[in-house]
Amino acid sequence: MTHPRIPHAAGQCPIPLSEFDRSTGDVNEAVGLPPTVYTDPSFFDFERCAVFGSEWLCVGRSEQIPEVGDYFTVTLAGTEPVIVVREPGGTINVMSSVCQHRAMCITAPPERPREEWFAPIPQVSGTARTFRCPYHWWTYDLDGRLLVAPSMERRRDFDKAEHGLPRLRTEIWNGFIFANLDPEAPALAPRLGKIDNLLEPYGLDDWATTPTDTHEDVPFNWKIMVENFMESYHNYGLHNRLLKKQEYGEGAAADGGYQPPYENGDGVIVHCGVAPAIDPAVNPTQRGLFTPVPELTMEQRRQLIFAFVPPTLLLGVFPDSGFWFTVQPETVSSHTLSMGYFFPRPTVEEKLFPALLDLYDAAIQQFNSQDLPANLALQVGMRSQFAPRGPLSHLDSFLPKFNAWLLERYGNADGGTGDG
What we know:
Naphthalene 1,2-dioxygenase Alpha Subunit, Chain A, domain 1; 2 domains
């Protein structure tokens, strides 16, 4: 059984689509998006359907569930709780966590202490042979089939085969698991050509990830998180004490390298910077802590790859390591943020890996300690009557590409005239 798309049409875009044209095209002529796209609940309702109802949403890494029965839960687009589980035979299944009897979330804990009675349902992980709804004990197999439905024997024409958990379309790309709420959406893999050749020498599908660090109710719009991750202009100011300007400024990682233009239909936006020295990294020393991938050429060992597989996966890949973030919107001013590091499998088996991982994490957290509070301040500023659509720098080159990707989806979903 395939899960249907988010069950209401996007409707008419609350903002005239022509307003977005100024935010696409040449970065030296473009301006920022209208501030209301970060603050208006009615626009968020439109965007949630237009973007998240029909796109491939990253839910995690395949090595998070290595054995049959291993699973974890995620909430997509703020409203769709799903289970990500490895079935017998090794297939990964992404299916709804909503019981098909009375819509109970089957991964909700059956009881909680008083102080947590009304807290949000936690995201969980574990190993299971079946999934049993705690409300009426309907029990489902790992593939979503309904196995047990107590006290339904008097129900006329009741067929368990008709009441399984809805399954979502699923794709695996470089070890990342993607799911789609739209059964008719185009496949993801053919749209990722602009990064596949770059990533091939790294063998990411066999890399090992660390346990994810998940934060719910992150108090700013999901687009702010994406923009901050990918644009390099803020390295000059916000990170000036963590990065050497001469190495991450104009002509180097922030401004040079491989930056293909965005074209309609692309499933990835790529910025590949080139550092002056081999084995760069995102830490105050700007040098890698681990053994670089042996298959890389000396030229590739100068690369810093930043990629966005919209709308949810943010990816940083370096000669020795990488990190990935996923964003799942909750409301117009909040999202769930998951973060993980990943490494070539031989690296995690090295004796010094735990100690070096602590250093690696400390370095990333230094950046987060600056980025995340700044993003909150951006959300506050976007609510101001004085919030601008400011002119972009050439170091903001990601923004017009992202805006073009968004506009394409807004236009496809707009149920009105397109004129607002």
